[in-house]
Amino acid sequence: MKRSLIPVAALATILTVTACGSGGTGEQGPEYTGDTFDWKRYSGQSVKVYVADTGQVESLRAGLPGFQELTGITVDIEAADVTSYRQNLPVRLTSRAADFDVMATFPEVDGPQFAKNGWYTNLDPYLSNPGVTNPEYDIDDFRPGVRKAMTVEDQTVTVLWEMQTDLVYYRKDLLEQANIPVPTTFAEWDAAAAKIHDPGNRLYGFALRGIPYQTTTPFSSFLYAHCGQWVKDGKAAINTPEALKAYEVYGQLGKKYGPPGIAGFDWPVPSQQFAQGNVFAFLDVNLFVKDLEDPSKSKVAGKVGYTSVPRGDCDPAPFIGGWGYGINPFSEKRDAAWYFIQWATSKQMNTDLKKTGWPSPRASAWESPEFTGNDKTPEFSKVVLESTQNARAQMNPPVAPGVEAREIAGTVANKGLEGQTGDALKATADQQNGKLQGLLDAMR
């Protein structure tokens, strides 16, 4: 499979623009300062929504006629794949582009860079203004862990449309045929994959992401379970013994049991291979259940098992985070943009999405009788909700720029998938650790 790495020129642009912002978040508050909320206040306006598509855009577009009827606001959605979006958004913000009003942001990745450059609008003044926030919106319906994932430097900069956390997807039928209980440690998953791995019949034991900057998402669970950290005591720590062990486990699990070309896998590919019946298990985010359980899209629908990320030398620690909607600080229609965000992240929209299997960030969506009475994957729901109890809001190095930090740390995992072990892998980790430390030093 062809590797779709971030082009060097594009990455260089992303790095260069970080010095061009004004710092802080956009301090402009809502234009309307009264205390009476009116859905029709901005009737006749139009807003442009620029987002990364993680699977939500189809449902979003389907609901737009209802939003227009409710508010009188028309919406144009510009959606891009995640890789393209991450490359292009910083460039557009650097030019102070005002041709879009709502933007997608993943604070855990974007936070340090975007806050430094003034690329966020602080949403707290909107949330606290009864004139522009529907009294039924209920921000407290987003639980504390989710709220934390919406903030940067103690300011709310986004409202999540999804609640990502890691878990393991596996084939229940293959595990039963092999007479193996559901593994709970990385060593047990290695043993199970070894027993079921059958490349002669195009059945592979385990799949993982391979593109460097994409690997940090699943790798974070390997790192924490092996007692490692991205940064320790203010210093880059991806070459410590704990981190190296995690990289070894990640690389060997994928190298020994992964499909051909695994080192070039972009983020959706493990789930796609699994849906085709080519993979026994994979570890990744909780965004794939809808398609995996759809018989028209998946050959393994009805055969999928779900379980929490494994233990290593330390307890399991999945992450919690996700993409959300923010307001472009250079937009001239920020209040209308906020109306769209409220609607798109409302209780009803979240409940409707939850019924399709979407990992909603709202507690009410998971608890609603509409969902619980018809939950077709209760095992998945249980795993996700349990995972949020011990999750960490840190799936990437807390270093700016986020994309380059991910590329640096993920390169070690990528080399592990290509077959590096021992001293060779340590040399790569040492080299990349020096680069990560350089970014840390530049932040000071």
Automatic annotation (TrEMBL):
Coiled coil: none annotated. This is ABC transporter substrate-binding protein. Keywords: Signal. It comes from Phytohabitans kaempferiae. The keyword Signal applies. Residues 1-19 form the signal peptide. The keyword Signal applies. Residues 352-377 are annotated as: Disordered.
